[in-house]
Amino acid sequence: DRSSGPRVSDTELRVYKDPSKDELPLLPEELVQDSAKDVTYICPFIGPVRGSLTVTNYRLFFRCTDREPVFGLDLPLGGLSRVEKIGAASSRGDVSYGVVCKDMRNLRFVHKEPEDSLKKSVFEVLMKFAFPVSNNMSLFAFEYKQVFPENGWKVYDPLAEYKRQGLPNESWRISKVNDHYELCDSYPATLFVPVTITDEELRRVSSFRAKGRIPVLSWIHPESQAAVVRASQTMVGQNGRRCKEDEKLLQAIMDANAQSHKLFIFDARPSVNAAANKMKGGGFESEDAYQNAELVFLDIHNIHVMRESLRKLKDVVYPNIEESHWLSNLESTHWLEHIKLILAGALRIADKVESGKTSVVVHCSDGWDRTPQLTSLALIMLDSHYRTIRGFQILLEKEWLSFGHRFQQRVGHGDKNHTDADRSPIFLQFIDCVWQMTRQFPAAFEFNEYFLITILDHLYSCLFGTFLCNSEQQRLKEEVPKRTVSLWSFVNSQLEEFVNPLYVHYPSHVLFPTVGIRHLQLWVSYYIRWNPRMRPQEPVHQRYKELLAKRAELQKRVEELQREAANRMASSSSERAGSPTRSITPVQTFV
Amino acid sequence: MICSGFFVTSGEVEFCSANPILKYTQDDLSQRGVFGTLFCTNFRVTFISDEKPQEKTDKTFKNKLYGENDIPLMCVDHIYGVYDEKRKLITGGLVKNKYPSKMIIHCKDLRVFQFSLTFSKEEDAKKIFQGIAHHCLEEKSLKCVFAFSYMGTPSPEMQWKQETVMFDSPEDWTQEMKRTKANCRLVTENENFELSQRLPKYFVIPLTIGDLFSYQGKGLPIWCWSHYSGCALFKASFPPVTQEDGDFQKHLDTMINAVAHNHLYSVKTEDLSESLPNIQDIQQSYNKFKQFFLIENSTDFWLSDVKWFSSLESSGWLDIIRQCLQKAVEVVECLEKDNTNVLITEEEGTDLCCVISSLAQIMLDPYYRTLMGFQSLVQKEWVAGCHAFLDRCNHLHQKDKEYHSPVFLLFLECVWQLVHQHSPAFQFSETYLTVLSDSVHVPVFSTFLFNSSHHRESVMKAESPLAQSGPLSCPTVWDWSVQFDSKAQNFFFNPLYLEKVKHDRAVRKPHKPKHQRNLSLPSTAFKTPPKKGFFKDETDSLKKMLRVKRLSRWRGSPDAPAATTREFFESWQHRPLDYHGLLLPCLDGPAVHIWMQRYLRWIPEVYILGGGSVAVMTKLMELLSQVQDLKRVLEQRDSSQAAKLDHRPYFQHRLLSFDSSGRLSSSFPFAYTCYRSFKPIIPTGLMQSLMVTDSLASQEDEASSVVSFV
Q1: Phi and psi of A54, rounded to 5°?
Q2: Among A43, A520, B344, B671, which is most buried by a count of CB atoms within 10 Å?
Q3: Mean pLDDT score across all residues of chain A
Q4: Are A325 and B313 within 8 A, CB to CB?
Q5: Strand segments (E) across A210-252
Q6: Does the N-terminal peptide bond of residue B20 adopt cis geometry, omega within 30 degrees of 0?
Q7: For residue B79, is pLDDT > 60?
Q8: Could you tell me if B320 and B210 are in contact, meaning their C-beta atoms sit under 8 angstroms apart?
Q9: From the list A133, A323, A324, which residue is nearest B710 (CB)?
Q10: Does A524 touch chain B (CB under 8 A)?
C-alpha cells in the first residue's frame, strides 16, 4: 500500500479509497503541529478546493472536504523552498499563501487570518517547520526512527568496492594520508593512488589543487588497466605556477597503464571559463608542463547557468504548457542541451577508456559538481555493475557522497534562504542523464524509473540521512549514520518495486548512448508529473510481467502433463522394450 | 552485362548503366565509398557493388522487391548535382549537356544516396545521369509506371488479402452496415459511374435521400460509420459556401436534413476546409519538415542538432498532426457523448474528410485497430473512397504542384501518434506503418496508383487486353507476400497488443472474419442516450423546433472548442483505460512525438547500438513466442480436445534468434549496422552549440558568502 510508509506521493492529488478514515498516516516520531479548517487550495488543474490543512514536523497535508471522491495533497516539508504571504488580506480577511517547491511545483492556499492576533496562523507554523535549520531545530531525519530489515548504511564499503575492481594491485595502493581528513576535508578517508607516489608528495600536490582535491582513482578497467581519475583544477594562476609532484603524479597515473603512452585530461568547463579561472589563482594543466597529456574542454556550464535553466524549464512546464510553442519554449530553456553536453562529455571519457585504453583525469573547478556528473555517468557506461540497483547505490555513495558533492548547499535542506546562489540542480541533472540512458537502453538497467524518482523525492524530503551534509567528514561529525535511517534501508527492503522487469544482465557490455538532441527527451514523468493530463504509462513493463506470469503458468502445466505422460509411457512401454522410444518432444526450458 | 538473377522482378527492363561509379558510404565524412555499376531500369535505379557482398548480413527483414541499394523510380524525391563544388537541384532544363561530378538522390522514404560520376567514361556518365534524371523527374504517363509491366506471380499466400475487406462489392458494404448496425441505404446506381466519376462504385447514404442525380452527386452525404447509439458519421463534398446558388443551397439543406434524420433528428456539420490547413499548407509543411531528416553528412547532422526543436516547430508539421487529431476528437465527442450525427465536408470530400473520418473510427471502434480492420478501413475510406492517390503522391511527376500533398502520410502520422500513446490497443506495429508509408512509392501496387474507383476501373479495363497473357497482375499492397516473406511479416504485429479476452470460446466459429462490434464504451459512462424510438411519432412541427445545429465556426475562437474537448479528454482519462474501448490521444505539446523509426532510421548518428525500443520489442516477441510454444504443446497434448483446432492465422513470433539480441541497433529492422565498428558517435561542433551570454556563465562556482551549515 503506497499510502503508508515513507513515500512521496506520485501524483499531486491522491484519491482516497476509504474516505471514512480521515486519520493522517503518521510516521514514527511524526507529530501534528497545527491544523486549520476552511483552507482553500487553488489547484491549477481543477480550480479551488476547500479542505483542512495539517502541518506535522515532517509534512504538509491538505485534505479536501468539498469534493467527491475525497482526495488529499501530501508532501514532505523538505520539498518546500519558499513559503510566503502574497499581498495583503482581502476585505473578507482572506490571506493568500504561496508555496514554492523544489520538485517543480508551486502551491497556493487561501486562508482566513486568525481573529485572535496572538494565535499563530497555520502558515506561520508551516514556515517554522519547513525550515528547521534556519529556526535552530533539527531535520526530521534525526527524529525518524523506523526500523527496516536491512541497514542501508552498510551498502557501501569502499575497500570491498575497490577490491571488486581488483585493487590494490601492483600499480595502485591505498593511501592513509586522508584518514582523518587532514589532507582534504571534502574527500573520503580511503584514497587510491599510484604506488610510486609517496604520501609526502601527495601533501604537496594537495596545495596545488583547488580545495586540496588531489587526483585519485575512481575506477580501473578490469582488462586494459586504464583508469578514471578525478581531481579539482590546478592552482596555476596568472603566473603559470607549476608543481613537480603534481606532474609526477599524472605521469605515474599514465605509467600505471601499460597499454597507452598518453593521458587525457578532461576539463569539464568551457575553455573560456577555465582560462578566466587563472585570474583567481586556478586554471588548468598546460601541455608544456604535462608531457604526453592532452587537455580537452567539455564545455559544460557552471551551477548558476544550470539553476537558471531549470527555473526556465519550470516556467515552461508548470502549471500550463503552451501548446503551439512547446518545442521552441523547451529549446529556450537549454535544459536538454545541457544534458546533451554532460552526456557527450561522459561519452568521450568512456570512449577514451574503453576504445582508446587510455587513462583519463577528470576535473572542473572544485571537482565536486561537474566532475561527479561526468565520472559517474562514464562509470555507468563502462561498468554494468553500476546499472544494478545495489551497484547504483554504491556509485552514488562513492562518487557523490564520499567525494563530497555539497548536497546541503546545492539543495539547501531546511534552509529558508531560497535565493542562496549555492543551490543548483546538479544531482537532478545527473539523474536525468541516467534516465536518458535508461530510455535508450531499456533492458540494460536493473532499476526502473520509479527508483530514480524515489531517489529525487528523498533528495529533498529530509526523511533519510543519505543526502544530508556536504561531505563524509561532516556526516561522521554529525553522526548521520548513527542518528538517521539510510534511504537504501527503505529501498532495499522493498526491492521488487524498483526492479525493471526487462533487465538482462550482460556483464561485459559497454553502453554508448546517443547524445544527439534528437534522441533526448524531456523527462515528462518527472518534470510534468503534477499535470494530471500527463498520466504516465508503462504498458511495456505491465505486459512483460503478464507474459512472464503466463509463461510460468503454462510451463507448470506442461511439466505436469509431461510427468503424467512419462508415467503412462513407463507403464505401457515396459512390454515393448527394445523398440525405439518415441520420446516426447523435449520442452524447452527457459531461464 | 547484367549478371543473371539481377532482375528480381519480372517485367523489368534496363534503360542504361555506367561503371565504375563510386557510391559514398553515408556514415563517413572521409569521402570513402564502394565502386560498382549504376543501372537505371523501368522499375528502379540500382547500384551493384563490384565487391562481393558479405554473406554475413543475414537479413530477417528483407524487401523482396527492392534492396538497400535500389531506389524505385517513384521513390525518388529530388536529385541534386554537384558542379564544381556547387550543389544544384536538378530539374528538366539542367539535364541537357553538362553532367555533374556527383549526384545526390533524396528518396521519399528519406534515404540519401551519393554517387560520384567522375570515374566512368564521360559518355556513360552522361548517359546514366540523363537517364536517371529523365525517368525520375520528367512528367510521364500512367502507362509507363512499372506496375503495368510488372508480372509478378500471384502468391499462394492470399489469406491476408482475402481477409481485408476491399469494399468493391455491395456485399462488403452490406456487411459493414450490419456490423455497425447502420440504418442506411446502399447505393448501387453508380455501378457504371453514371452518377459521378468522383464517387465510389458503391456507397451508402441516409435512408431519406430520394434524389441522387442532381448536381452530379455533389453534396451527397456518404456514410462512414455508425455509432452503437444509432448516430452516424457522414462525409460530403461541398463547393465553397460562397457559391450563391439558391437551388444548390436548398439541395444542401435537404442533404443535411437527411443526415439529421438518421438518428434523433440531430446533426452537426463541420467544414474541414475552413477549420484545418488545406492540402497546400500540408505539402509545404511536410517539405520543410522532411529536410531535417535528409542528412548528407555528420557535420550537417550536428549542426542541425542544435536548433532541433525550434526547427521542428517552424515546419508546423507536428502542429498539423495535432490539429487533425484534435478535430477527430471533436467528431468523436459529438458521436460518443452527444450522440448526434456528424457531417464533415470539404470541397472534394476525399482529402481531410478521409483523414478525420478514419481517425475518428480508429478511436471509436477497436476493430480498426486490428491489422485486418485497419487495412479494411484504408480500403473503405481511402481506396474505395476515392482519395486521389495518383495526384496527391505525384507519381507521374507533374509540374503542377497544386495537387500534390502527403495527405495519406499525414493520416499515418496521426495513427502513429495513437499507436505510440496506446500501444496495447493496436494489433499492428509501428514497423507496419513505416512499411506502409514506404509502399506508397513502390510502383507495383494498384492500391496507390489511381485517383478514384472510376479511374482504376477505366485504366484496368483499357490495359488488360494489351497485356500479353490474361488480366493485369497488379497486386494490392495488402498482399504483403509480394514484398516480405512470412518471417518478415511478423514484424507487422505488435507484441504489446492485448487481445480481447474471449469468454465464450466454444461458441466462436473459426474461419469467419471477426466483424462483431465492440461497443466503444459502456453507455453508462456518459449520460445515458435517450431511448431509441422516442421520436418515432414525431410531427413535422416538432422537427422544426429542434433546429439543425451547425458546429461552431471554430476558426474565430480557437480556444472554446479546445476547452470542451479538453474536458471530454479529461473525463475519459479519469476512467480506467480499456484498450478495447474508446481511445483518445493526449494532445499536449510533450505528448506529441516524432515518428523516430520512420524519420531517423537511415541516420547512423542516432543509432543506439544495443538499445532503442527494438531491444524491448525483441524481448517481448521472444517471450510471446515461448508462451505460444507452450500453448501449442498443451494443445497437442490435449488429445481429447484435438478436434477443436483453432484455425486463426497463426502468427509465429519466434523468428528472433539473434546471437545477441543486446547488440541490435535501434534502427532495426531497417538499417543494418553489422559492418560498423562498435564505436560511439562523438558529437562535433559542440562549441557553437551553447553560447550562454548570460553573466551567470562567468560567475564563480562557489559564492563567496560564508558557508552556512547545521
Answers
A1: -120, 135
A2: B344
A3: 90
A4: yes
A5: 216-220, 227-230
A6: yes
A7: yes
A8: no
A9: A133
A10: yes
Interchain contact A326–B (C-beta under 8 A): yes
Average pLDDT, chain B: 80
User: Nearest CA to A425 among A311, A591, A261, A539?
Assistant: A311
Rounded to a whole number of angstroms, the distance from the CA of B417 to the nearest CA of chain A is 14
**A393 with A296: CB under 8 angstroms?**
no
Per-residue model confidence (pLDDT) at position B669: 79
Reduced to 3 states (helix: H, G, I; strand: E, B; else coil), residue A237 is coil
How far does the CA of residue A405 sit from the closest CA of chain B (Å)?
12
How are strands ordered across the β-sheet holding B232-237? Answer: B222-226, B232-237, B341-346, B267-271, B549-550
pTM: 0.89
Rounded to an integer, what distance in angstroms lies between the CA atom of residue B251 and that of residue B268? 17
Cβ atoms of A235 and A241 within 8 Å: the answer is: yes
Report the range of poorest mean pLDDT among A69-73, B71-75, B431-435, B517-521.
Answer: B517-521
Contacts of B708 (CB under 8 A, 6+ apart): A415, A417
In 3D space, the residue among B412, B282, B269 whose CA is nearest the CA of residue B349 turns out to be B269
Give the residue, A231 or A93, on which the prediction is more confident.
Answer: A231
CB contact (8 A) between residue B690 and residue A517: no
Query: Is the pLDDT at B660 greater than 90, yes or no?
Result: no
Binding residues of A: 277-280, 302-303, 364-370
Question: Do B610 and A511 count as a contact with CB atoms less than 8 A apart?
Answer: yes
Q: Which residues of A are catalytic?
A: 364
Distance separating alpha carbons of residues A570 and B410, to the nearest angstrom = 64
Residue B233 host element (H or E): strand B232-237
Q: How many CB pairs under 8 A join A and B?
A: 244
Decide if pLDDT at A264 tops 80: yes
Pairing mode, strands A71-76 and A59-64: antiparallel
Q: How far apart are CA B503 and CA B516, in angstroms?
A: 14
Contact at CB, B309 and A328, closer than 8 angstroms: yes
Radius of gyration of chain A (CA): 28
Beta bridge partners of B38: B18, B47
Give which of B650, B625, B366 is closest to B510, Cα–Cα: B650
pLDDT tens sequence across B247-268: 777 888 888 888 988 888 889 9
Cross-chain residue pair B322–A323, CB shorter than 8 Å:
yes
In degrees rounded to 5, what are phi and psi of residue A273?
-70, -35
Residues 6+ positions from A156 with CB-CB distance below 8 Å: A393, A394, A397, A398, A402
* Chain B environment of A528 (Cβ under 8 Å): 590
Check CB contact of B30 with chain A, cutoff 8 Å: no
| CB B405, CB B283: distance < 8 Å | yes
Burial class (CB in 10 A: 0-12, 13-18, 19+), B225: buried
Q: How far apart are CA A568 and CA B581, in angstroms?
A: 47
Beta bridge partners of B34: B23
Q: Say if CB A545 and CB A421 are below 8 A apart.
A: no
SS3 A193: strand
